[in-house]
Design a protein that fits this description.
Blueprint lengths: L11 E8 L2 H12 L2 E6 L5 E7 L2 E8 L2 H5 L5 E7 L3 H10 L3 E9 L3 E7 L5 E7 L13 E8 L3 H12 L2 E5 L5 E6 L2 E7 L9 E7 L3 H10 L3 E9 L2 E7 L5 E7 L4
Protein backbone atom coordinates (compact mmCIF):
# COMPACT_ATOMS: atom_id res chain seq x y z
CA UNK A 1 0.00 0.00 0.00
CA UNK A 2 1.68 3.25 -1.11
CA UNK A 3 -0.09 5.52 1.40
CA UNK A 4 0.86 5.05 5.03
CA UNK A 5 -1.05 6.17 8.13
CA UNK A 6 1.26 4.61 10.71
CA UNK A 7 4.37 2.50 11.17
CA UNK A 8 4.81 -0.36 13.57
CA UNK A 9 7.70 0.12 16.03
CA UNK A 10 10.88 -1.24 14.49
CA UNK A 11 10.00 -0.15 10.94
CA UNK A 12 12.11 2.29 8.90
CA UNK A 13 9.76 5.21 8.41
CA UNK A 14 11.57 8.40 7.39
CA UNK A 15 14.65 9.69 5.62
CA UNK A 16 16.25 13.07 5.41
CA UNK A 17 19.12 14.68 3.57
CA UNK A 18 21.87 16.74 5.18
CA UNK A 19 23.37 18.79 2.36
CA UNK A 20 25.86 21.56 1.73
CA UNK A 21 23.51 23.38 -0.67
CA UNK A 22 19.85 22.90 0.12
CA UNK A 23 18.61 25.17 -2.68
CA UNK A 24 20.56 23.22 -5.30
CA UNK A 25 19.49 19.90 -3.78
CA UNK A 26 15.85 20.98 -3.93
CA UNK A 27 16.18 21.74 -7.64
CA UNK A 28 17.93 18.43 -8.31
CA UNK A 29 15.44 16.18 -6.54
CA UNK A 30 12.47 18.12 -7.90
CA UNK A 31 13.72 17.46 -11.42
CA UNK A 32 14.34 13.81 -10.60
CA UNK A 33 11.29 12.93 -8.51
CA UNK A 34 8.80 15.77 -8.90
CA UNK A 35 9.02 16.82 -5.25
CA UNK A 36 7.37 19.93 -3.89
CA UNK A 37 8.74 21.68 -0.80
CA UNK A 38 7.65 23.28 2.45
CA UNK A 39 10.36 25.15 4.36
CA UNK A 40 9.75 25.10 8.11
CA UNK A 41 11.37 27.02 10.96
CA UNK A 42 13.63 24.62 12.89
CA UNK A 43 14.95 27.01 15.53
CA UNK A 44 17.43 29.90 15.52
CA UNK A 45 18.98 30.20 12.09
CA UNK A 46 17.78 26.74 11.02
CA UNK A 47 15.31 25.58 8.38
CA UNK A 48 13.94 22.11 7.77
CA UNK A 49 12.50 21.40 4.34
CA UNK A 50 9.70 18.89 4.00
CA UNK A 51 9.67 17.28 0.55
CA UNK A 52 6.25 16.25 -0.68
CA UNK A 53 4.76 14.07 -3.38
CA UNK A 54 1.07 14.16 -4.31
CA UNK A 55 0.33 16.10 -1.13
CA UNK A 56 2.16 13.69 1.19
CA UNK A 57 5.47 14.24 3.00
CA UNK A 58 8.06 11.79 1.69
CA UNK A 59 11.47 13.05 2.88
CA UNK A 60 13.24 15.89 4.65
CA UNK A 61 16.18 18.17 3.93
CA UNK A 62 18.43 20.19 6.22
CA UNK A 63 21.69 22.08 5.98
CA UNK A 64 24.77 20.02 6.81
CA UNK A 65 25.86 21.14 10.26
CA UNK A 66 29.15 23.05 10.45
CA UNK A 67 30.57 20.65 13.02
CA UNK A 68 29.82 17.74 10.67
CA UNK A 69 31.50 19.49 7.75
CA UNK A 70 34.49 20.33 9.96
CA UNK A 71 34.80 16.61 10.79
CA UNK A 72 34.84 15.75 7.09
CA UNK A 73 31.34 14.25 7.09
CA UNK A 74 29.95 14.65 3.56
CA UNK A 75 26.34 15.35 2.58
CA UNK A 76 24.32 12.23 3.28
CA UNK A 77 20.91 10.62 3.59
CA UNK A 78 19.84 9.42 7.04
CA UNK A 79 17.42 6.62 7.91
CA UNK A 80 14.94 6.81 10.80
CA UNK A 81 13.29 3.83 12.50
CA UNK A 82 10.00 4.24 14.34
CA UNK A 83 10.08 3.30 18.04
CA UNK A 84 7.47 3.34 20.79
CA UNK A 85 9.77 5.09 23.28
CA UNK A 86 12.81 7.03 22.06
CA UNK A 87 14.26 7.39 25.56
CA UNK A 88 14.04 3.69 26.34
CA UNK A 89 15.48 2.72 22.96
CA UNK A 90 18.36 5.18 23.30
CA UNK A 91 19.09 3.86 26.78
CA UNK A 92 19.22 0.32 25.40
CA UNK A 93 21.64 1.17 22.60
CA UNK A 94 24.88 1.23 24.65
CA UNK A 95 23.90 -2.00 26.39
CA UNK A 96 23.60 -3.60 22.94
CA UNK A 97 27.03 -2.35 21.90
CA UNK A 98 26.09 0.89 20.15
CA UNK A 99 26.45 4.57 21.00
CA UNK A 100 24.09 7.51 21.44
CA UNK A 101 25.41 10.34 19.28
CA UNK A 102 22.61 12.85 19.93
CA UNK A 103 19.44 13.09 21.98
CA UNK A 104 16.88 11.99 22.79
CA UNK A 105 15.20 15.33 22.11
CA UNK A 106 11.84 16.68 20.98
CA UNK A 107 11.38 17.97 17.43
CA UNK A 108 8.72 20.55 18.33
CA UNK A 109 5.39 18.69 18.22
CA UNK A 110 6.39 16.35 15.35
CA UNK A 111 8.05 13.66 17.46
CA UNK A 112 11.00 12.72 19.63
CA UNK A 113 14.25 11.38 18.24
CA UNK A 114 17.82 10.31 18.89
CA UNK A 115 20.77 9.54 16.67
CA UNK A 116 22.62 6.29 17.30
CA UNK A 117 25.65 4.43 15.97
CA UNK A 118 25.61 0.64 15.77
CA UNK A 119 28.68 -1.40 16.87
CA UNK A 120 30.12 -1.19 13.34
CA UNK A 121 29.76 2.64 13.32
CA UNK A 122 26.82 2.91 10.93
CA UNK A 123 24.61 5.83 12.00
CA UNK A 124 20.84 5.46 12.31
CA UNK A 125 18.14 7.63 13.87
CA UNK A 126 15.13 6.59 15.92
CA UNK A 127 11.76 8.33 15.74
CA UNK A 128 8.93 8.35 18.29
CA UNK A 129 6.07 9.91 16.32
CA UNK A 130 3.69 12.54 17.60
CA UNK A 131 2.19 14.65 14.80
CA UNK A 132 4.51 13.27 12.11
CA UNK A 133 4.43 9.54 11.40
CA UNK A 134 7.16 9.63 8.77
CA UNK A 135 6.77 9.14 5.03
CA UNK A 136 3.09 9.10 4.11
CA UNK A 137 3.76 7.77 0.61
CA UNK A 138 6.19 4.97 -0.26
CA UNK A 139 7.01 2.51 -3.08
CA UNK A 140 5.94 4.88 -5.85
CA UNK A 141 8.10 6.92 -8.23
CA UNK A 142 10.22 9.34 -6.25
CA UNK A 143 9.50 7.84 -2.83
CA UNK A 144 11.34 5.63 -0.37
CA UNK A 145 11.17 1.91 -1.06
CA UNK A 146 14.12 0.29 0.77
CA UNK A 147 16.80 0.97 3.39
CA UNK A 148 20.11 -0.86 3.29
CA UNK A 149 22.97 -1.18 5.74
CA UNK A 150 26.52 -1.34 4.44
CA UNK A 151 28.69 -2.80 7.20
CA UNK A 152 32.01 -4.63 7.45
CA UNK A 153 30.49 -6.95 10.06
CA UNK A 154 26.84 -7.60 9.28
CA UNK A 155 26.38 -10.35 11.92
CA UNK A 156 27.67 -8.01 14.64
CA UNK A 157 25.35 -5.25 13.47
CA UNK A 158 22.45 -7.72 13.23
CA UNK A 159 22.79 -8.63 16.91
CA UNK A 160 22.51 -4.94 17.79
CA UNK A 161 19.38 -4.41 15.70
CA UNK A 162 17.82 -7.58 17.06
CA UNK A 163 18.29 -6.27 20.61
CA UNK A 164 17.09 -2.78 19.75
CA UNK A 165 14.26 -3.34 17.26
CA UNK A 166 13.54 -7.07 17.36
CA UNK A 167 14.79 -7.61 13.83
CA UNK A 168 15.49 -11.14 12.68
CA UNK A 169 18.30 -11.59 10.15
CA UNK A 170 18.00 -13.97 7.20
CA UNK A 171 21.14 -14.30 5.09
CA UNK A 172 21.29 -15.77 1.60
CA UNK A 173 24.47 -16.87 -0.12
CA UNK A 174 25.13 -16.64 -3.83
CA UNK A 175 27.06 -14.36 -6.13
CA UNK A 176 26.65 -11.81 -3.33
CA UNK A 177 25.94 -12.52 0.34
CA UNK A 178 22.89 -10.50 1.38
CA UNK A 179 20.99 -10.24 4.66
CA UNK A 180 17.35 -9.28 4.97
CA UNK A 181 16.17 -7.82 8.25
CA UNK A 182 12.67 -8.99 9.12
CA UNK A 183 10.08 -7.75 11.57
CA UNK A 184 7.25 -10.17 12.33
CA UNK A 185 8.27 -12.15 9.27
CA UNK A 186 8.19 -9.19 6.88
CA UNK A 187 11.34 -7.93 5.17
CA UNK A 188 11.86 -4.29 6.15
CA UNK A 189 15.53 -3.59 5.34
CA UNK A 190 18.69 -5.19 3.99
CA UNK A 191 22.39 -5.43 4.79
CA UNK A 192 25.59 -6.36 3.01
CA UNK A 193 29.36 -5.97 3.28
CA UNK A 194 30.90 -3.04 1.38
CA UNK A 195 30.95 -3.97 -2.32
CA UNK A 196 34.32 -2.23 -2.71
CA UNK A 197 37.09 -0.81 -0.55
CA UNK A 198 36.73 2.63 0.96
CA UNK A 199 32.98 2.60 1.61
CA UNK A 200 32.35 3.46 5.27
CA UNK A 201 29.56 1.84 7.32
CA UNK A 202 26.30 3.58 6.48
CA UNK A 203 22.58 3.25 5.99
CA UNK A 204 21.65 3.82 2.34
CA UNK A 205 18.28 4.69 0.84
CA UNK A 206 16.55 3.44 -2.31
CA UNK A 207 13.95 5.45 -4.19
CA UNK A 208 11.40 3.71 -6.40
CA UNK A 209 11.38 4.99 -9.99
CA UNK A 210 9.30 4.24 -13.05
CA UNK A 211 12.36 3.90 -15.31
CA UNK A 212 15.84 3.39 -13.85
CA UNK A 213 17.72 4.27 -17.05
CA UNK A 214 15.72 7.42 -17.68
CA UNK A 215 16.24 8.52 -14.07
CA UNK A 216 20.00 7.90 -14.34
CA UNK A 217 20.15 9.93 -17.55
CA UNK A 218 18.28 12.83 -15.94
CA UNK A 219 20.41 12.68 -12.80
CA UNK A 220 23.74 12.66 -14.62
CA UNK A 221 22.57 15.44 -16.92
CA UNK A 222 21.99 17.51 -13.79
CA UNK A 223 25.40 16.85 -12.29
CA UNK A 224 25.04 13.54 -10.46
CA UNK A 225 27.69 10.83 -10.65
CA UNK A 226 26.82 7.23 -11.49
CA UNK A 227 28.67 5.04 -8.96
CA UNK A 228 27.30 1.61 -9.81
CA UNK A 229 24.92 0.15 -12.35
CA UNK A 230 22.46 0.13 -13.83
CA UNK A 231 22.16 -3.51 -12.91
CA UNK A 232 19.40 -6.09 -13.07
CA UNK A 233 18.76 -8.10 -9.90
CA UNK A 234 15.82 -10.39 -9.04
CA UNK A 235 13.77 -7.58 -7.46
CA UNK A 236 14.34 -5.04 -10.23
CA UNK A 237 16.80 -2.76 -12.00
CA UNK A 238 18.85 -0.44 -9.83
CA UNK A 239 21.75 1.99 -9.76
CA UNK A 240 23.75 3.87 -7.15
CA UNK A 241 24.20 7.60 -7.67
CA UNK A 242 25.88 10.53 -5.93
CA UNK A 243 24.01 13.82 -6.11
CA UNK A 244 25.85 17.01 -7.12
CA UNK A 245 26.56 17.88 -3.47
CA UNK A 246 28.00 14.43 -2.69
CA UNK A 247 25.09 12.52 -1.05
CA UNK A 248 24.81 8.90 -2.18
CA UNK A 249 21.43 7.31 -2.94
CA UNK A 250 20.05 4.46 -5.01
CA UNK A 251 17.15 4.20 -7.45
CA UNK A 252 15.31 1.05 -8.42
CA UNK A 253 12.64 0.09 -10.92
CA UNK A 254 10.90 -2.68 -9.02
CA UNK A 255 10.07 -5.87 -10.87
CA UNK A 256 6.90 -6.19 -8.78
CA UNK A 257 5.13 -3.69 -6.51
CA UNK A 258 6.31 -3.79 -2.92
Amino acid sequence: MPERKEYAPGTPSWIDLSTSDRAAAKDFYNALFGWSYDDQDAGPGATYTMAGKNGHPVAGMADLMKEQADQGIPPHWQTYVTVADADATAAAAPKAGGMVLAGPFDVVDAGRMAVLADPTNAVIAIWQPKNHIGAELVNEHGTLTWNELISPDVPKAARFYKALFGWDAETSEGPMTYTEFKLDGQSIAGAMAPPMEGIPPNWGVYFAVDDADATIAEATKRGATLLNGPMDIPVGRFAVLMDPQGAVFSVIKLAQPM
